[in-house]
Amino acid sequence: MWKPNATVAAVIERDGRFLLVEERILGQRKLNQPAGHVEHGESIVAAAARETLEETAHHFAPEALVGIYQWSPPERPELTYLRFAFAGAITGHEPGRPLDDGIEAAVWLSRDEIAARADEHRSPLLLACIDDYLAGKRYPLALLRDFDRTGDRIDALTEAV
């Protein structure tokens, strides 16, 4: 049965530079936003904060939804990713924290530096999210309505912090 993969990404800008990760995938270095899959029982907003911490050692507070993206890798068309990209603020850093397996480094790059390394992009979503962010696309987190198993609404902002 086909089902899309729900993923999140953090678009974090500071002084014209974006926080990215360099990761090793099948022996190749790739660039991506701090990103990953939503875990069972986790809100989408909380997943973005968790993935950012695990991949960069930076605490991230999502403040707005930049966009929702759908993509299937050409080499694996049976896969579909639904990416929820968030803009927000860094609220802390744990420099000694180990990064997720496969993550080689967290780096700050300008949009031009990112574009110049297009052959290293993990997917076309990397630059699409940044360009939407630079175009000012921001949507309120209230668009995302998370419910627990009992049907009660979860306050995504409180849970993510």
TrEMBL record:
Gene Ontology molecular function: hydrolase activity
Domain Nudix hydrolase, chain residue ranges per copy: 1-131
Cofactor section: Mg(2+)
E.C. designation(s): 3.6.1.-
Record InterPro entries: NUDIX_hydrolase-like_dom_sf, NUDIX_hydrolase_dom, NudJ
Keyword Isomerase annotated: no
Top-level lineage group: Bacteria
Keywords: Hydrolase, Magnesium
Subunit structure: Monomer.
Family, per entry: Belongs to the Nudix hydrolase family. NudJ subfamily.
Protein's name according to its UniProt entry: Phosphatase NudJ
